[in-house]
Amino acid sequence: MIDDTVWFPRLSEVPNLEYRSDPAVDRRTLPLHDVVPEIVEYSFKGGPNRSLSWPTAGGWTSQSPAASWSSEDSEDQRSSGIVRRVAEALELPGAPIDYHFALLQAYDALWSLRRAQPEVLPEVERLCLLDIALFEARPSILRRGDREDELSIYIPAIYHLVRLYEREGFLEDALGIARRGEALGQVRGEGPRLEERLTAIRSESAT
């Protein structure tokens, strides 16, 4: 059975995830902040399956409020607008995968600005670390679909941080992220490569 019915009122309520809501965001002002989905049962590939259906002003949709808010075009494309938008999306009901895609959209947009606006890098780091922690808290979202059509989720946050830390010379931090990534089935081979670099640097320092 495909059962994709796990959801949360907001990201801060995901168990085993250390995340505090942005105090600048009043979730009560956000649309559909208090909606509760219904579980819909249907047949797929000859077997019973379940999914979430979310109420809207015009009826019902498979898209959660968090997913809808993060994917909706925003007029404010400044870095501050991107950061606020994702903070708002994380305050809305959704499935863990919806929060991942909201974070992904935000840190990828900020990553593209890093050369022109290097001041965005701390936010890139924060959002990437949060996305990794989300996968560690909810490892079930790493794979989507049934066994025959299973898809493995790619986590760009891990690659961004390894690249960023290594470029800035923080090789131990890069190695730490690589090891966390390997535990999630990502960045295979990066750990040994970084360990070799660290060993070489320490050997040079000792001579």
State the separation between the terminal residues, measured CA to CA.
60 Å
Structural class: alpha+beta
List low-pLDDT spans.
none
Average pLDDT metric: 91
Give Rg in angstroms. Answer: 19 Å
For the secondary structure, the number of strands is: 6
Notes on the structure:
It is a single chain. The chain has helices spanning 65-71, 79-89, 96-111, 121-137, 156-167, 171-183, 190-206; strands at 2-4, 38-44, 47-56, 59-61, 143-144, 151-152. The chain is globular, with a radius of gyration of 19 Å. It starts with a strand and ends with a helix. It is an alpha+beta fold and 207 residues long. 45% of the residues lie in helices and 13% in strands. The model has no long low-confidence stretch (mean pLDDT 91). It contains 7 helices and 6 strands.
Give the arrangement of secondary structure elements:
Layout: E1 2-4, E2 38-44, E3 47-56, E4 59-61, H1 65-71, H2 79-89, H3 96-111, H4 121-137, E5 143-144, E6 151-152, H5 156-167, H6 171-183, H7 190-206
Parallel strand pairs: 1-3
Antiparallel strand pairs: 2-3, 3-4, 5-6
Short account of what is shown:
The chain has 207 residues and is an alpha+beta fold. The protein has helices at 65-71, 79-89, 96-111, 121-137, 156-167, 171-183, 190-206; strands at 2-4, 38-44, 47-56, 59-61, 143-144, 151-152. It is globular, with a radius of gyration of 19 Å.
